Amino acid sequence: MKRSRHWRLIEALLALLSYMPGHTQTLTADFLPELDARVGLSSNVRLVFQNKQTLDDRLARTELGPSIDFYLKPIRILGNVTLFDLDETKPVPLTLSVGYRALIYPEKPTTSRVESVVLVHLPFWGRILATDQNRADMDWSDGGFYWRYRNRLTTERGFTIHSYHPRPYASAEFFYTSRYAKWSNSRLYAGCILPLGRHFELDPYYEHDNDTGPQPNQQINAAGFILSLYFSKHKK
């Protein structure tokens, strides 16, 4: 019965992923669903597939594609801080990721993107985990090419409520974009990772986006969720 309830919830969340905006527009608020599936290939390599909605460039779009993650062995101090987290890279000090994304717009040509990401995890007092994400995006479409650097700093802490282990977090992200030759965007996030059994996590979050690239500047507010699926080849 418990398993069937979990699957009914997941099916309802996946149904929300089918929502796509019907037209291109400048947005001030929206809802952003995301599905991430992670499959362990070995003790330090995993395959990731992602399908999500984003508001980059002030346009609603779908991002779709695979990545491959490479990571070091976990260390004890990070393992203690991330004891009940399903993400096997959280106890690892350094993770490298390379991936491809198709950026699908309702009324524009599809853009191809290569993503490279470096994640650094650091433990702090009070069982707080800090994550420094450095990401480079290389985009091309119709002969055009531009790149973007993104830095995101996240702090999170796990709590125990009886046998349940939610992980609230907050983060800030900053973008440098070659198209505008400046730091053109900043984002603030707040959310909470909610485990759903041994293989699923739900992350409902709020996002505030300050876009200073094209004029006029625009403030964008969004709510969303990330449904993460974890299938490890090995146990922690």
Question: What does this molecule look like?
Answer:
The chain is mainly beta and 236 residues long. The chain has one domain: Porin. Helix content is 9%, strand content 58%. The protein is built from two helices and eleven strands. The protein has an eleven-stranded mixed beta barrel with strand order 1-2-3-4-5-6-7-8-9-10-11. Strand 4 and strand 5 form a beta hairpin. The longest helix is centred in the N-terminal third of the chain and has 15 residues. The protein is globular, with a radius of gyration of 18 Å. About 5% of the residues have low confidence.
Furnish the topology, listing elements before pairings.
Layout: H1 2-16, E1 29-40, E2 45-54, E3 61-71, H2 76-81, E4 94-104, E5 111-124, E6 128-141, E7 144-157, E8 167-177, E9 182-195, E10 200-211, E11 218-231
Parallel strand pairs: 1-11
Antiparallel strand pairs: 1-2, 2-3, 3-4, 4-5, 5-6, 6-7, 7-8, 8-9, 9-10, 10-11
Quick gist of this model?
The chain contains two helices and eleven strands, in the order αβββαββββββββ.
